[in-house]
User: What shape does this take?
Amino acid sequence: MDAVLGAEFNATEFERDYAELNRSKYHLLTADNQDYLAYICLVLNTNLISLDEVMREVETSSLDNFEQFIRWVNSRMMINPAAGELLREVHEAVNASVRVGDPTPFKRFRRQEFVCTLEHMGNLPDTATVPELLQGEITLTEEVYQLAQWLRARGAIMLCLSDKPDEASMPHPRISPELQPLHIAETHRVGVSIQNELDEIS
Assistant: This one.
């Protein structure tokens, strides 16, 4: 945001808008996509469109998808070219990504998300308490882990699925080849043992 808006970037307003729009009631608009949400908040930060306008349009079902928001930005940029100049390059990149079906136009943002996620996996000592782990680390659920192990021992095929894009899940081959992909990164487990219940099922 600093790179796009420079001194015009208002971090406080960005965080306020992000917190409001990062809720399920806006998923039709944002598609629960962090890239789209960041772009919408970037637009709001330029005052090209206001948060109140977005909320009103969503409430009345006049705005119910991201492509519609892009068209709205297009029309506002034509009406007010000066206001749109700050984000024109980003807007065109996002618009092009949407047209070709790429849901992650902010590649650098997603690569940083991957690094930050990895930094919060297995980052605390084994002596950390459960509250400390839950507060400061991304953990696995012990019950789910034990069930997965139990199923694997019985020949079940284990699949790992995620809605995270590759850029937020895998190391970049040139930028961070030394890092592990998220699905094999180690971290702590938190929960209670269900081994006795599984043994009874067996």
